[in-house]
Write a structure and sequence with these properties.
mainly alpha
Length: about 325
């Protein structure tokens, strides 16, 4: 009897602890993404395609945060196969769909930023409205394809595996068809995103080093009093030019790095299931759910104009409450 009471107490403590994490994530996700959308709407210096992609990222993070954290709360709370089946069919597809959509938005933001930096004069000839529409349509199809195995069909292997995990209240990594398809649905998009972003930033670093080397060479060969002496070259580097085109790249890089950092431990666990215990998987699952508010937080704290609008919004809310 004592052992039974201890197990019950431990299970209740585990539920309360896990529930508190998901409730906090839910509140932060809704708050930060709503602020994110308001700030993006107020920004005037944000390029049109970037603004569209950031809006899509905010909406995807908002839906993902609501769906995933509500699913996780109910996942621990409900008992029985019927209720587990119900919440799995309701929350599984929107959670996995928005997960892939977040990665697609991050890839689109990085690719668009790459063209803005490397092809500033030809950008509007490359990124035409027609090509933007075709790219968005094809990307949406790719997102649906990657998420197709998570479509809410009761008899599908992925659905059955998620229901089984819910019933036993543990994430079990075994080489079954349902779990294999689910793992592929996570790992393949993340790896595609990782290698795409790695290629983009390696190329940007090469461009930056090449331009700095060219400036240093001109400075070294410039005569005193020459219009292109060292002081003018350094001033030219600081003026809007290549460095100006790199504006915002720090924010874009942090958005991508934060997403991959949050998901990397869970991906490693999926790749090496025998080295991962159920408790660690639950911890890493909680860590992955923070992506819904980490993305907007990174943008709001690293973009100068966004910080200004965010502070103005907070002041307006405080003034409204005191009025």
């Amino acid at each position: 009897m004592d052992e039974l009471n201890n197990d019950t107490t431990e299970a209740n403590w585990s539920f309360k602890h896990g529930a508190s994490v998901y409730v906090v994530n839910l509140v932060l996700g809704i708050t930060f993404n709503i602020v994110f959308l308001i700030v993006i709407h107020r920004q005037r210096n944000l390029q049109d395609v970037m603004k569209l992609l950031y809006r899509m990222l905010a909406i995807a993070c908002l839906i993902n945060g609501i769906s995933w954290n509500c699913w996780s709360l109910l996942w621990f709370a409900v008992k029985g196969r019927h209720l587990c089946s119900l919440i799995t069919l309701i929350f599984m597809f929107p959670t996995r769909l928005t997960f892939v959509l977040i990665m697609a938005c991050l890839c689109g933001i990085n690719v668009n930023k790459y063209f803005l930096i490397t092809r500033p004069l030809r950008y509007h000839a490359i990124v035409t409205p027609r090509r933007v529409k075709v790219t968005f349509a094809s990307s949406l199809i790719a997102v649906l394809v990657f998420s197709g195995c998570n479509f809410p069909v009761p008899a599908s292997p992925v659905t059955q595996q998620d229901i089984e995990d819910c019933v036993i209240k543990s994430i079990v990594l075994k080489y079954r068809l349902g779990k294999l398809l689910s793992v592929i649905g996570y790992i393949v998009p993340i790896n595609i995103s990782f290698f795409l972003l790695l290629g983009i930033y390696i190329n940007l670093v090469r461009i930056l080093r090449r331009q700095r080397k060219a400036v240093d060479n001109l400075e070294m060969h410039a005569a005193p009093g020459d219009p292109f002496d060292g002081s003018n070259l350094q001033g030219h580097w600081k003026q809007p030019g290549l460095r100006g085109r790199f504006k915002g790249i720090f924010t874009v890089a942090l958005l991508s790095i934060s997403f991959l950092a949050v998901w990397a431990p869970l991906c490693v666990a999926y790749l090496f299931p025998r080295a991962s215990t159920g408790n660690w998987l639950n911890v890493m699952d909680k860590m992955a759910t923070t992506v819904c508010w980490v993305q907007p937080l990174v943008y709001l704290t690293t973009t100068k104009e966004a910080k200004k609008h965010c502070i103005d919004l907070i002041r307006h809310c405080v003034h409204f409450n005191w009025a």
